[in-house]
Amino acid sequence: MTEQIFSKNGLYYRMNEFRENQLTLVFIHGLSGSSSAWLPYENFFKDKYNTLSLDLRGHGKSPKFKNYSDYEMGKLAEDVNDLIDHLGIKNFVLIGHSFGTLVAFEFLIHHQEKVRAVVFISPNIAVGKIKIAHLFKPLFNIFKPLVGFWKFSPRVGKHIDYSNYKNTGDWNLRRMFADISNTGLRAYFYGTLQSYEQNFELILERIKIPVLIIHGEKDTIFPIENSKAMMTKIKDSKFVSLPNADHILVLNNFSEVSNEISKFLVEYKNAL
Q1: Are the C-beta atoms of 118 and 212 separated by less than 8 Å?
Q2: Dmax over Cα atoms in the chain, in whole Å?
Q3: CB within 10 Å: which end of the chain, N or C, has fewer?
Q4: 245-269 tens-digit pLDDT
């Protein structure tokens, strides 16, 4: 794997040795996480596919930004698009987890013609409508004006070793503290509020490419019912529920998730 910084916007990214005419898997991590969550998947797929993982702006080793508007979903999606164009990638599958699925949805709105297929892991199409958002959104909006007065630190974070946090639940304070302290309160706060503003219900019926949806039945952050509703509206979709998985299934259920992705890619090999 080679690690690089995209000169246009300072984004960190990591890739294996790309082989021409081979399908590329583009991994997008969740809120306050980083590309290091995908390391086991990169190793799993590296012999059969090109792999690309990146740190979204404000996360991991990518630069932090000062303003709320800097974390708009459109800007995160365009960061991904700019990097893909820069690398000349033409044949790829988007794979997103949680917050990363929101970035993927936004990407599809503007660039679906570039994507061969999508894997949504623990997705949600309208975060602002779930119960936890009803609890936290009013509080976050109260403090939003104050965040602009916080001292801004452009300090770039690091990569968390997620092997230390396997089998931690949705609300594990030790993992959450490691993630948020690394990302910083500003990026976490703004990212959360931006997610509450998203509603991708209208795009579902416009998705014309193969889609795999993977969701844990014990997810207490983005309830599985959201994925079931997605499945009924996306024409060419496959839905997989994991009985013993929660929201952190990328870390906790690597074997099941990687195998489901692998089967999906083989099943749609001709289409891809």
Answers
A1: yes
A2: 53
A3: N
A4: 999 999 999 999 999 999 999 988 7
